[in-house]
UniProtKB/TrEMBL annotation:
This is Claudin. It is a multi-pass membrane protein. It holds the Pfam family PMP22_Claudin. It comes from Helopsaltes ochotensis. It is found in: Cell junction, Tight junction; Cell membrane. Claudins function as major constituents of the tight junction complexes that regulate the permeability of epithelia. Keywords: Cell junction, Cell membrane, Membrane, Signal, Tight junction, Transmembrane, Transmembrane helix. Residues 1-28 form the signal peptide. Belongs to the claudin family. GO terms for cellular component: bicellular tight junction; plasma membrane. The chain crosses the membrane at residues 118-140, 162-187.
Length: 188
């Protein structure tokens, strides 16, 4: 039962870590939702903004000036939280691989392997909280920005909504949290 639970938690942690990495690297955290009259599809991410022409499929991207440039708070905070979540999830994944019962590393000391699994679960939990905070921070800021424009009757021609990268970050963080619960609570 313990080995099956470990392998399940490892698979979930691996998939969730990949989701977190993809969410951090991709550039579709915000998408334009007014595509009825639009001839292009706009995506804004943490690192750049891209526009895809709907008729011929040509995609052009504008990199943000610099990582150290003066950016909106939502981008800086989300970048920081997501990168930290990625690093913690990667560290937890490496620790978990060494703590699995099916790996021969420290085979003679099952107590140490159990502690490694528990430590990986705690680290995954911390990473999931940071990733979920970053994703939710960005999503709430997009919603508040949109609500402010609507409440002031301002129409700029482009209406942004949550993009698939934001949803991917939330899914990866949630998966890391579930794997953390499996490793910390259910393994004992």
């Amino acid at each position: 039962m313990g080995a099956a639970l470990q392998v399940t938690a490892f698979g979930l942690a691996l998939l969730s870590t990949l989701f977190l990495l993809l969410a951090t690297c991709t550039d579709c955290w915000m998408v334009n939702a007014d595509d009825s009259l639009e001839v292009s599809h706009k995506c804004r991410g943490l690192w750049r903004e891209c526009v895809t022409n709907m008729q011929d499929g040509v995609r052009t991207c504008d990199q943000y000036d610099s990582i150290l440039a003066d950016h909106p708070v939502k981008i800086v905070v989300t970048r920081t939280l997501m990168i930290t979540a990625d690093l913690l999830a990667g560290l937890a994944l490496a620790t978990l691989v060494l703590g699995l019962d099916c790996i021969t590393f420290l085979k003679e000391d099952p107590c140490a392997k159990l502690k490694m699994c528990y430590g990986a679960g705690v680290t995954l939990g911390a990473g999931s909280i940071l990733g979920l905070t970053g994703s939710m921070w960005y999503a709430v800021d997009v919603y508040v920005e949109r609500a402010m424009l609507v409440s002031h009757n301002i129409f700029l021609g482009v209406h942004y909504d949550f993009g698939w990268s934001c949803w991917l970050g939330m899914a990866g963080s949630t998966g890391c949290f579930v794997a953390s619960v499996l490793l910390t609570c259910c393994l004992y």
